[in-house]
Amino acid sequence: MKFLNRRSSGNRRRKKTSRFQRQVSEKQEKAPQRKSESRSSQPLNRSIITAIGSFVAALRFLSIIPVSDSFGTNEEELARSVPFFPLVGLFFSCIALPLAWGLYMVLPSAVAAVLMVFLLLGFSGGLHLDGLADTADGFFSARPRERMLEIMRDSATGAMGVMALLLLLSLKIACLAALPALGDKLFLAVFFMPIAGRIAILLLMALLPYARPEGGLGTLFKDSFATNQARLRALAVMLVFSGISWAAAGPQGILAVCAVLLITALFALFCRQKIGGVTGDTLGAACELAEATIALVFVLQLGSGV
Questions:
Q1: In the chain, fewer beta carbons within 10 Å around the N or the C end?
Q2: CB within 8 A of 152, min separation 6: which ones?
Q3: How far apart are CA 73 and CA 153, in angstroms?
Q4: Are residues 86 and 210 in the same domain?
């Protein structure tokens, strides 16, 4: 009996030992797997962090919305931020839609339209309107190219700039006031205006080189002005924008896309003729022109089927 007890206890010890060895071996086998999984997840994590940083940099560049200093503060992130310009416009649209609903619920259409235009320009702190005014002062000054660029850099606003501001703001307000209050067209116009404006910036950068010989945006966004990569990016963005516009607004949505393309292309030709490229001011002007174009298209009466 003692022999059997010793034998059985020895078997139990051997079983525990073998079980322990199996557990150790399983842990050793799983350890490399965990390391490989962590290594494979690291590039994904870096990509996500890079994308967030680039989006925040685009938000900093295009708006006055305060954001954390943890992202989007270095030049590399800003240089990679151009593809995120339309997403910044989408972000503005998501803020503007509920505010538009609230304004038109409690105020007359004309008053709500004025406040809505003020809200849309407030996202950028009037930066793009300032670019429109400077562009008008320079382009309609009847001066040589170098002098035009100097005028556009001057912070003072001339008569042409004031007229351009008045005309464009009046057009936006009139269009939004003319749309039926709380109607589908009103909300579609408010939704697409910020997106189309930021897409127009991206399109103009893809079509033309930077006009100034020294530094500025040309150095910062050197891979985004008139390169094949920029043109492919713009094409992809326009295809996505066209699909969303068709799904949301049907034929009138496609008409809005075509109108933005036409206005931006004509403005690009005008910029090439005047200064041989683009500047930060002309990018802002393109944004404002595209927003006004969207508002104008949705005012058009195209029949009850639209």
A1: N
A2: 134, 135, 137, 138, 279, 281
A3: 25
A4: yes
pLDDT of res. 46: 73
The pLDDT tens digits of the residues spanning 195-237 come to 999 999 999 999 999 988 776 676 678 777 888 888 999 999 9
- Which pLDDT does position 139 carry in this prediction? 94
Alpha helices in the chain (DSSP H): 2-62, 75-79, 85-106, 109-122, 127-139, 145-153, 159-178, 184-207, 217-220, 228-249, 251-275, 280-299
Give the residue from 80, 107, 125 where a domain finishes: 80
**Domain identity same for 205 and 235:** yes
In 3D, which of 192, 207, 206 has the Cα closest to residue 260? 192
Weakly modelled stretches of the chain, pLDDT under 50: 1-9, 11-17, 19-21, 23-24, 27-28, 30-31, 34-38, 40, 304-306
Same domain, 216 and 247: yes
Looking at 80, 112, 133, the residue that finishes a domain is 80
Q: Which domain holds residue 75?
A: 17-80
Tell me if 48 is assigned to some domain. Answer: yes
> Which of left, alpha, beta for 214 (phi over 0: left; psi -120 to 50: alpha)?
beta
In the chain, how many domains are there?
2
Can you tell me the distance from the alpha carbon of 127 to that of 136, in angstroms, rounded to the nearest whole number?
Answer: 14
Pair 124, 67 in one domain: no
